[in-house]
From TrEMBL:
Molecular function via GO: class I DNA-(apurinic or apyrimidinic site) endonuclease activity; damaged DNA binding; oxidized pyrimidine nucleobase lesion DNA N-glycosylase activity; zinc ion binding
Enzyme Commission number(s) from the entry: 4.2.99.18
Name used for this protein in its record: DNA-(apurinic or apyrimidinic site) lyase
Lineage of the species this protein comes from: Bacteria, Pseudomonadati, Pseudomonadota, Gammaproteobacteria, Oceanospirillales
Organism: Kushneria indalinina DSM 14324
Cofactors named for this entry: Zn(2+)
Coiled coil: none
Stored InterPro entries: FPG_cat (IPR012319), FPG_N (IPR035937), H2TH_FPG (IPR015886), Ribosomal_uS13-like_H2TH (IPR010979), Znf_DNA_glyclase/AP_lyase (IPR000214), Znf_FPG/IleRS (IPR010663)
Source taxon at top rank: Bacteria
Length: 285
């Protein structure tokens, strides 16, 4: 399933063809939404945002189309006089004078007023979006140190969408590797420098995945692999999906473990776990 950076890239692509333009025609597949087709037609889209794995298409009258791709949904953008081919079922179409944006296969679509979004059953439970809500390093440090999250193990916390929206499985492994932290650490176990480095890597790794279409590996490590003709799956990430491969930093084989029912990859040398005495010492500080 795509993570926050992939959904943000979808929002960016949709924004290029919809934002600032009049929507001349709106079509919904679902009967309960059809009364809103005429209301939205003729209005301008102000922006397309992402929030975690949801998309928000915002109109000038403050209506917002909420959509979630779920497992199989996909957006397709094409010239207005074209229709998508294939077996996927169309669910939503937004057409400008030149282009149409089609949402295929997804069924989680609804219409809201912007001031009502805090009542949405999914969005109301999400933490801030790292790529949409202008999150800073200081914001993340404060959230890590808050009573709500400080006692959670990092391996589970980073997947919790109440913490920050959009972090999924590959981002979790990559963030912890670049922060040099084992998944067993809790925010309360971290010293000030570790906490800040984790916050920085949460932002940096997520932003790198957004800029490079899901690639989180450093350029210095991936470029030689690309030049050698290795497939994308081998050079895309620093640790994720690289079990038994050597760590780019120290050469130690990458390990694969299961945390929160999901696979997590780490370097046992660069991300050493704390001993019980170290945990106790941190708690006494």
């Amino acid at each position: 399933m795509p993570e926050g950076p992939e959904i943000r890239r979808v929002a960016d692509r949709l924004g290029k063809v919809l934002a600032g333009r009049i929507i001349e025609d709106v079509w919904f597949a679902f009967d309960h939404l059809k009364p809103f087709e005429a209301r939205l037609a003729g209005q301008k889209v102000t922006r397309v945002d992402s929030w975690g794995k949801a998309l928000l298409t915002c109109f000038e009258d403050d209506h917002v189309i909420y959509s979630h791709n779920q497992l199989y949904g996909v957006w397709r953008i094409m010239r207005r006089d074209s229709e998508p081919a294939g077996k996927r079922s169309p669910r939503l179409r937004l057409s400008t004078a030149t282009h149409s944006a089609w949402l295929m296969s997804a069924s989680d679509i609804s219409l809201w007023r912007r001031e009502e979004l805090d009542q949405h059953p999914f969005l109301s439970k999400l933490g801030p979006d790292l790529l949409t809500h202008n999150v800073t390093t200081d914001d993340i440090v404060a959230r890590l140190q808050s009573p709500r999250f400080m006692r959670r193990r990092l391996g589970a916390l980073l997947l919790d969408q109440h913490f920050y929206a959009g972090i999924g499985n590959y981002l979790r492994s990559e963030i912890l590797f670049f922060a040099g932290l084992h998944e067993r650490y809790r925010p309360m176990d971290l010293d000030r420098a570790q906490c800040r480095r984790l916050a920085e890597q949460i932002l940096q790794v997520t932003a790198r995945a957004w800029r490079h279409a899901g690639v989180t590996n450093l350029r210095a490590w991936r470029d030689p692999m690309i030049a050698a003709g290795e497939p994308r799956g081998r050079w895309r990430h620093a640790v994720f999906n690289r079990a038994t491969e050597p760590c780019h930093t120290c050469g130690t084989p990458i390990e694969r473990i299961i945390v929160a029912s999901r696979r997590l990859y780490l370097c046992p040398h660069c991300q050493q776990d704390m001993t019980p005495s170290q945990v106790y010492a941190r708690q006494e500080q």
